[in-house]
Amino acid sequence: MVNIAPRETQDLNLMEDEAFRAHVRQWIEANYPADLRNPPKRLHWDENKPWYFKLAEKGWLCPGWPRQFGGLGLAPAKQIIFTEEIERYGCARTNDHGIVMVGPLLINHGTPAQQEYFLPKILSGEHIWCQGYSEPNAGSDLAALRTEAVLDGDHYIVNGQKIWTTLATDANWCFLLVRTDKNAKKQEGISFLLVDMATPGITVKPIINLEYHDEFCEVFFDNVRVPAKNLVGTPNRGWDMAKALLSFERIYLGSPRLSAYAFTRLRQLAERMGVWDDAAFQETYGKLRLDLEDLKSLYGTFVEKLRRGETLGPDVSMLKIFQTELFQRITDTMLEIAGENAGLLEPMEGNRNLNPTGLYIQARPATIYGGSNEIQRNILSKNVLGLPG
Amino acid sequence: MSQALDDRSESIRMIRDSAGAVAPRGGDTKRVRALRFTNPGFDKGVFAQMGELGWIGLAVSEDAGGAGLGMSEAVALAEEIGAGLAPEPLIPAMLSARLLAAAEDKALLAPLLEGGKVVLTAWQEKADTLAVPGTSDAPRVFVPMAAGADAFLLPVREGNRIALLALDAAGADVALEKTMDGGNVGTLRADLSRAARVADDIGAVVEQALDEAALATAGHMLGLMEKAFEMTLAYLRTRQQFGRIIGTFQSLQHRAADLKVHIALTRAAVESAAAALDAGATGAVRQAAVSKAKHRAAESGLLVLRQCIQLHGGIGYTDEYDVGMYLRRGMVIANQYGSATLHRRRFMALAPEDVE
Ligand SMILES: Cc1cc2nc3c(=O)[nH]c(=O)nc-3n(C[C@H](O)[C@H](O)[C@H](O)COP(=O)(O)OP(=O)(O)OC[C@H]3O[C@@H](n4cnc5c(N)ncnc54)[C@H](O)[C@@H]3O)c2cc1C
């Protein structure tokens, strides 16, 4: 936990873009823990918290939150620059579910009491959140979820199982989708509950992923008592909020950061492998570069809409599709030029910047999580293009 | 169909059947999982069994102690090994057997063919190459499963000739790196003063032996693709979401159909190249056929294996579920004996208009 008192008070939106970029870069270089640069795997809370606390102290943890809630209220163009600098330097991703999802959820739908209680604890790092949506039989069909919450006086009793819960072993709070009305249509009996992971009856079991890393988990709920005041919004209306939140998730997953990160490493790898000057490589590199540039432009238009206070439509799925597939194409190219290094478990030559296999594997689930790309294409064709079916 | 072809399909069938003993298709992956990240990363007992079954000398002439079969049998076997994810370094051992047989060596060839000695050829001096410069003091890199070597073979240039030296693995300077699939590769810094001379010139055979290894590796990839795709089809037929079997979604049906096309292309490229080599193709014709097959296997192989993960959703990204093991193995072999880019360029450089 940190004292978040000495916050950035200056309105960074007033700076010129290049001055802002220099300002961010300088601060990152001066403050980012050197041993955490370019981590080959997603870091656990124990490992990334020094960086989380640095950002928190500076007041830069939540660049997109409005200033009255402790955010930076940063304009879209500036947010993109901010992200680019973070990625350029190889800063680790933090345990950011609180920042990216719970914050926006509570800012939009929380009671003042919930906002006052939870938001500062995200900003201080006291609460680390995980996302309890998916279940073994409710993945793409999330609305089929069966984990149930039954009201008992002023508590809900929760029973069921979640799966693929990222970094649940690190989290002390979970935002959970539960079924509160079994008789209603499947989308109409779902509620949002905020659950303290220390509550008796919760068991977390790590799952080893394709990178041999314990990044996601199964979470079991056995008669877990959750105070009714931890329900967000209206009972049985959780699905609508979740959907709105998914558009936050999609714009986050559509942000160019992962592709931008991989792209700079592609160049480093090409130089190391001696193909940088190769005309055919330059052709491929140029195509990827332009895809990345255009993704940044498209992303900017969505962030701008948010900035104007508009709610994002289903067309945000375009961003998620293009970003995640670009990330994969960049890492596919890495594997292609890496020679036999394409089979190594660890980064090449002990250099974390040369990690083609790690990035290749990490790029795979990007088209699965956050609503698979097949589901995103269904959304685009039905809800944006209005095709029948 | 000619008598020769009938014999061929019979010997291919027998090879495939015999593979079941070591790398059972549809068998469980317990053995494979238990060996991951162990030293040496494979089972020397199983390697010996491969020798007893005649696999290591499959393409070595009967006179030299081999089975006297050809590349059509070798790629069929490699495919079975891939489908069963066997970690034993069979293709590198076949390469060594080829060189030793050409050198008319007796001392190392017999124990290698029996599977009693793991003999690996340390020919490579940089990533993504098929060239064998034979630089005497260059470290030899990416030796597959080097942790389990009993001896290394080293091609060393002497004027216009490529001599073959043998080095006992005991006491050799080998730096190991782990691979994605739980195996390892080694960098050998050989002390040639400790090495024994096997042959004065293997220059004539080394290129061909590497082409054969590249083609067998394409067969290995084909086995990975077939098996991972079979698992994926089974999943598409059973997994339900939205109250339906996901295999009823037309977008997934089309994807599966596309993957089938890639698998068919790969099989056609691999099997036709093997037939060309068995018919005695040499020089540019052989190289073009091999490059066609290895290029296709590297490109379509990774594509199919990636999509198999995608079609499984979250469970495809776990270590516990087998489909991911196929992708990891695919990453390890995709660029072995030449990447897609290398083989595409070699193919084009051979003036394909002029080859059959
Ligand atoms: C690395 C990772 C981290 C994750 N983190 C979290 C987390 O923190 N919290 C959480 O709640 N969840 C998390 N998830 C779960 C993720 O949201 C689900 O994996 C995803 O929704 C897909 O569900 P599923 O895995 O059950 O696949 P399924 O829904 O079974 O899908 C299998 C395949 O069928 C396709 N498919 C399904 N329906 C259709 C359709 N109608 N049309 C066409 N194709 C279809 C899918 O696209 C996929 O290819 C994570 C997943 C991964 C891989």
From TrEMBL, chain A:
Residues 130-224 form the Acyl-CoA oxidase/dehydrogenase middle domain. The keyword Ligase does not apply. Residues 236-384 form the Acyl-CoA dehydrogenase/oxidase C-terminal domain. Residues 16-126 form the Acyl-CoA dehydrogenase/oxidase N-terminal domain. The keyword Transmembrane does not apply. Its cofactor is FAD. One of its GO terms (molecular function) is oxidoreductase activity, acting on the CH-CH group of donors. Keywords: FAD, Flavoprotein, Oxidoreductase. One of its GO terms (cellular component) is plasma membrane. It comes from the Bacteria. PANTHER family: ACYL-COA DEHYDROGENASE, ACYL-COA DEHYDROGENASE FADE29. Belongs to the acyl-CoA dehydrogenase family. This is Acyl-CoA dehydrogenase. The lineage of its organism: Bacteria, Pseudomonadati, Pseudomonadota, Alphaproteobacteria, Acetobacterales.
TrEMBL record, chain B:
Residues 10-90 form the Acyl-CoA dehydrogenase/oxidase N-terminal domain. One of its GO terms (molecular function) is flavin adenine dinucleotide binding. Keywords: FAD, Flavoprotein, Oxidoreductase. The keyword Oxidoreductase applies. SUPFAM superfamilies: Acyl-CoA dehydrogenase C-terminal domain-like, Acyl-CoA dehydrogenase NM domain-like. Its cofactor is FAD. Residues 205-342 form the Acyl-CoA dehydrogenase/oxidase C-terminal domain. It holds the Pfam family Acyl-CoA_dh_N. It comes from the Bacteria. Belongs to the acyl-CoA dehydrogenase family. This is Acyl-CoA dehydrogenase. It comes from Neoroseomonas soli.
